[in-house]
Each structure stands twice: as structure tokens, then as C-alpha cells.
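for the recovery benchmark. C-alpha cells below, seq after
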């Protein structure tokens, strides 16, 4: 394996690669799953919209179709205020002479929907008339009858509307539109009311178009069947074996006109089914008209109904408000609807559903919950792998550093011990002063070796288990005195002076494990002796003071070179020492790590305190104190 891939940097690169593969694969799966879910939800939403559209269109057609079918089956003679019935019998049972009996049009008083504004008929000479718009003479004669008919539908609004039609609409364009939409469904007969048994759908046939909606075709067929049934019902009320006998097809509806032309001649009548049309006016908006072509003899007529488009819009919107609250309706002027699924068959009107309000709110679906759990599991697994790998690498490096440090630290005292013991045992040293110096050196090296082995054993015990503490109360002065007595000789041998200061007071006591507290302070003093060896100020301070929240602060301060800012955290890690002082001072780098862990076991802490410009290093041990009243007891 390449050296660049070893250690923590190599492990980090490998971990990033593994995390990228896992994250990329899981991200791709998540994206694909969410896209599939979004498509499914959109398909479900579209299916629900289509179902609501289908229901809405059936409602609208069912609301309008029966009324239009009734008007489509209305006889052509009803479009005159007076017409001659095909058969009339007097009181003695004798048939009246054709044309001698006249009947008022039912359109004068019949109950009509509010959106049917006016029934009219016109011919190629642009003569417009309506059974609901009477001449002054006809109106006067109706009122003089013994039993005058109810003229409910004769209103001034209809008179004004008929005048507007004369000005706005061209008869040629109206007849052309009726021919274009209704010529395939024309009916020829010889009766007053002409109809056949054939099915006559009112909408253009477009079954050859690949875009034609089957639902739209079904609704159109149902409407055609409804109109055919209505015509059959109307046909049964009139004889079809008689030739239609009518007065003058169009012109004056007055009684005087009929009295001047009492002669009635039989004529052939041809008419088509009524079709809904959008007719463009001259000045105003397009008008919605329900019209048909009628031929009486040689005269061509157009009979129709003017529909109120604004009222129709309101009625239709109210009908589907529960399905589409914000729906609107637009005219459909094409022969083949662009959107048959939302186009009415009864009228050329297209439903416009409310616009989609932003993105669809999906919420926490089972798929999304599963994906979140998968991501959490993957992240936890990566975290566990990363932490485990980092721990293994760190453990491996610590073992390497431990072996290297222990091997180096053991070799020096052992070499010295072996050399001096060989010299002493071989009788090579004759002078007593030199022997005493060698023995003193052997004692120092043995002590150094003992501290090294003791630190290693203590660290091993802390790694395996938590040690049992022997917590006892001890006066702070007593603890400082014990530490000073134990380490004054070591400081003197290293050329240092241990200075003790107690600023906390003589009656302050602490509850701690005395042996461990002494080991902590001993490690700090030993480090001060080693790392401040070449400093001009040979003093080492052991200083105590009161801290916050019932704590006591014990500082070990020297005047050495100090600790660089970038290494102030690393020195508390196992087998770590300052890089600049690593070669100058011995040890394996366990002293501060052990001291910090011991301080935490005692309920305190060990930190590197901020130091001034003339100060090297100051380590602060914080320990809890015991209340004065308890000590006095």
C-alpha cells in the first residue's frame, strides 16, 4: 500500500470515498423513488380530476339537454303568435274548415327557463319576428277577446332584444351557420310537424378523429337519443297523414292580416334539428343561439332561441361548484372540440377547471418515511464506520507511538544502569567519590524507570476499568505540604526551587483521593522540571487559591519556554508531547493525559491556564472543597 494512503489522512480519503459511493447510490435511489411516487400521485390526481370532470359534464348535460330537447321538438308553427291547428272540431263534432280556427302560440305564456331570452324566426329578406313580440294591433285584439290569453312572455325586454338582433345579426351568416351544422340532420315530411324515427344527434360527427373522446361521444349519443324521444312524443300528438295547412309563413301576425288572407293552402314543410351556435355580432360580444333551418314551401326560414350566456355561466358554475369551486366556462367555436373531456354536448361550452394552486402537497407518505429511515440508518452506519475506523487508526498510531516511546525511554536508563553496574562490579571505579556519583546516577535512572513503568501501568488500568477512589477529607495546607515534601528533592536535583503559596486560607479542606491528587500534582511538577530546564528563573510555583462555586484552584507554574498555541490541546492526548521539546525531555507522553483523567475522576478538571508574557506554562487543577462547618465538626 502506498504511504500516502496510510495513517489518518489515508483513512479519511477512504472514508470519504465510501461515503460518496453510499450517498450517491442512496441519493439516486431516493430520487428515482420520489420521481416514481410523484408520477403516481400525479396520475392519481389526474384520474380523480377526470372522474370529477366526467361527473360534472354529465350533470351539466343532464341539466340543459332535456330543456333543449323540448325546444327542438317544438313545432315550427309555435314561432308565430297565431297559427292554424291541423285539425279543429266544433261543439257538434263537425270538423272545422282548415284555417277557420286559429290558436295562440304557447310561447306567449309557457313557463320558460330564465336563460331563454327570446324565440324568433327570420327569412332571407331579413324579416324578423317573434311570437313574444306582438304588433300593437295584435296586442289590442288579444285584450278584447272574451277570454284573453295570458301574455306572460310578451315583455318590453324581448321587444328591445328583437330590435338588436335586426341590427346586429346578418341573416345570411345565420342561415349559413345553421346549414353548416345542421344540414346532415335535415328532415323532410309532409305533415305540419315533421320528424322521422332516425337518430339525429346535434353535434358534428367526428368518430373518425383519433383525438375524439369516447366519453364525449357517449354523452352526445345520449343527448341525441333524448331529442329523438322528444320528437317521437311530439309526433304522436299530431297526425302525419295530413298536409300541413298554415297561414302566411312570415309577416304580420295581426288579426287583420289573417282576415284579409283567409285562404290557406297546403304546403310541404322541411326542418332540421336545432343546433347551438355562436354567432358573431357587429358591435357586441358573440351571441349563443339555438337555431334550426325550416323550409315552408319555397321559403327558407331560420327559427331559433337567443340564450342568455351570462346567466348560463352562473347556473352552470353553481351546478358544479362542489366539484370545481373556481371553475369558469368558455365558448367552444371549433367544429371538433380540442378538449372533449370537458366540453358539453348540449351546448358548445368548455369547462375550465380552477388553476392548480402551486405544487401538490404530498406530506409524509410511507415511501418518504422509509427513505428517511434509510438515510438515517445509512448516516448512522457511516458514522459508526467512520468513528470505528478513526478509533482503530488512532489506536494503531498510539500503539506505534507507545512502542517507539517506551522502547526509547527504556533503552536509555537500562543502558546507563548496565554500564554503571558493569563498571562498579568489575572494580573499574576505585575512588569513593566517583562511586558515590555513579550510585546516585543509578538511583536517578532507577527512579526514572520506575515512574515510566508506573505511568504505563496506570494508563493501562484507566483504559480497562474505572479505579476505585478512596475519598477522604484533607486540609489544603496539609496536601500542599505533602506534595512539597515529596518533590522538593526532585526539583533540587533538576536545579529548580519549588515555591509553595496558599492564598485560599488555612481552614480550607477538600474531599478527594489524596494519593491520586498527589500523583496529579507530581506529574505537573515533574513536567515543569523537565521542560523548563534551561530557563533563567529556576523557580516552580505550587500555588493554591479559591475559585468559583466552592472550588479550589491549585496551579503549577514555571518560567520555561511555554507551550505553542497550536499544541495546547494535543498535549493532553496520550503519547503526545510538545514537538519542540520532544527531543530535549524524556518520557512517553502519558503524564498530562493521566493527570487530566484523574482530575475528572475526582470531580474536578485540569486545564492549561492563560499565561503572561514573562510566564512559561501554568497548569490549573480544580477540585471541589468541603464546607467550613463540616471541617470544624
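predicted aa per position
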Amino acid at each position: 500500500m502506498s504511504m500516502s494512503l496510510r495513517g489518518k489522512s489515508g483513512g479519511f480519503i477512504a472514508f470519504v470515498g465510501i461515503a460518496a459511493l453510499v450517498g450517491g447510490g442512496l441519493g439516486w435511489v431516493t430520487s428515482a423513488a420520489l420521481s416514481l411516487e410523484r408520477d403516481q400521485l400525479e396520475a392519481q390526481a389526474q384520474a380523480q380530476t377526470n372522474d370529477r370532470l366526467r361527473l360534472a359534464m354529465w350533470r351539466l348535460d343532464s341539466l340543459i339537454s332535456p330543456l333543449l330537447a323540448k325546444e327542438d321538438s317544438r313545432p315550427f308553427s309555435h314561432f308565430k303568435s297565431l297559427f292554424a291547428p291541423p285539425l279543429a272540431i266544433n261543439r257538434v263534432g263537425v270538423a272545422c274548415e282548415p284555417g277557420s280556427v286559429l290558436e295562440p302560440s304557447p310561447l306567449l305564456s309557457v313557463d320558460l327557463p330564465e336563460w331563454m331570452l327570446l324565440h324568433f324566426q327570420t327569412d332571407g329578406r331579413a324579416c324578423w319576428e317573434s311570437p313574444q313580440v306582438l304588433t300593437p294591433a295584435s296586442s289590442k285584439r288579444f285584450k278584447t277577446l272574451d277570454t284573453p290569453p295570458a301574455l306572460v312572455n310578451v315583455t318590453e325586454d324581448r321587444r328591445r332584444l328583437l330590435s338588436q338582433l335586426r341590427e346586429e345579426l346578418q341573416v345570411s351568416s345565420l342561415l349559413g351557420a345553421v346549414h353548416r351544422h345542421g344540414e346532415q340532420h335535415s328532415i323532410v315530411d309532409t305533415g305540419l310537424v315533421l320528424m322521422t324515427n332516425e337518430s339525429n344527434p346535434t353535434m358534428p360527427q367526428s368518430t373518425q378523429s383519433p383525438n375524439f373522446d369516447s366519453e364525449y361521444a357517449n354523452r352526445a349519443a345520449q343527448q341525441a337519443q333524448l331529442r329523438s324521444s322528444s320528437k317521437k312524443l311530439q309526433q304522436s300528438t299530431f297526425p302525419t297523414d295530413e298536409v300541413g295547412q298554415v297561414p302566411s309563413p312570415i309577416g304580420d301576425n295581426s288579426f287583420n292580416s289573417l282576415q284579409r288572407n283567409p285562404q290557406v293552402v297546403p304546403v310541404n314543410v322541411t326542418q332540421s334539428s336545432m343546433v347551438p351556435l355562436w354567432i358573431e355580432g357587429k358591435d357586441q360580444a358573440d351571441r349563443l343561439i339555438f337555431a334550426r333551418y325550416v323550409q315552408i314551401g319555397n321559403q327558407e326560414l331560420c327559427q331559433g332561441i337567443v340564450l342568455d350566456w351570462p346567466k348560463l355561466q352562473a347556473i352552470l358554475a353553481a351546478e358544479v361548484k362542489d366539484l370545481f369551486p373556481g371553475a369558469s366556462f368558455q365558448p367552444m367555436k371549433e367544429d371538433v372540440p380540442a378538449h372533449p373531456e370537458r366540453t358539453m354536448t348540449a351546448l358548445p361550452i368548455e369547462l375550465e377547471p380552477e388553476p392548480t394552486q402551486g405544487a401538490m402537497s404530498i406530506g409524509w407518505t410511507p415511501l418518504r418515511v422509509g427513505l428517511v429511515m434509510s438515510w438515517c440508518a445509512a448516516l448512522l452506519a457511516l458514522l459508526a464506520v467512520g468513528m470505528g475506523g478513526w478509533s482503530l487508526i488512532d489506536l494503531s498510531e498510539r500503539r506505534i507511538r507507545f512502542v517507539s516511546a517506551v522502547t526509547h525511554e527504556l533503552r536509555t536508563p537500562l543502558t546507563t544502569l548496565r554500564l554503571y553496574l558493569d563498571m562498579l562490579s568489575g572494580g573499574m571505579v576505585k575512588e569513593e567519590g566517583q562511586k558515590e556519583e555513579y550510585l546516585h546516577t543509578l538511583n536517578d535512572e532507577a527512579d526514572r524507570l520506575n515512574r515510566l513503568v508506573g505511568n504505563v501501568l496506570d494508563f493501562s488500568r484507566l483504559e480497562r476499568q474505572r479505579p476505585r477512589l478512596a475519598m477522604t477529607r484533607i486540609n489544603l495546607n496539609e496536601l500542599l505540604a505533602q506534595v512539597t515534601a515529596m518533590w522538593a528533592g526532585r526539583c533540587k536535583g533538576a536545579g529548580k526551587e519549588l515555591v509553595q503559596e496558599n492564598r485560599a486560607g488555612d481552614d480550607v479542606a477538600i474531599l478527594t483521593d489524596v494519593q491520586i491528587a498527589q500523583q496529579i500534582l507530581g506529574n505537573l511538577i515533574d513536567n515543569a522540571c523537565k521542560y523548563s530546564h534551561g530557563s533563567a528563573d529556576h523557580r516552580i510555583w505550587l500555588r493554591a487559591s479559591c475559585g468559583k462555586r466552592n472550588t479550589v484552584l491549585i496551579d503549577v507554574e514555571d518560567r520555561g519556554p511555554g507551550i505553542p498555541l497550536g499544541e495546547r490541546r494535543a498535549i493532553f492526548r496520550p503519547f503526545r508531547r510538545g514537538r519542540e521539546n520532544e527531543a530535549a525531555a524524556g518520557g512517553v507522553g502519558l503524564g498530562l493525559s493521566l493527570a487530566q483523567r484523574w482530575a475528572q475522576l475526582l470531580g474536578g478538571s485540569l486545564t492549561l491556564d492563560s499565561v503572561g508574557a514573562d510566564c512559561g506554562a501554568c497548569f490549573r487543577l480544580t477540585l471541589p472543597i468541603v464546607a467550613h462547618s463540616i471541617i470544624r465538626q
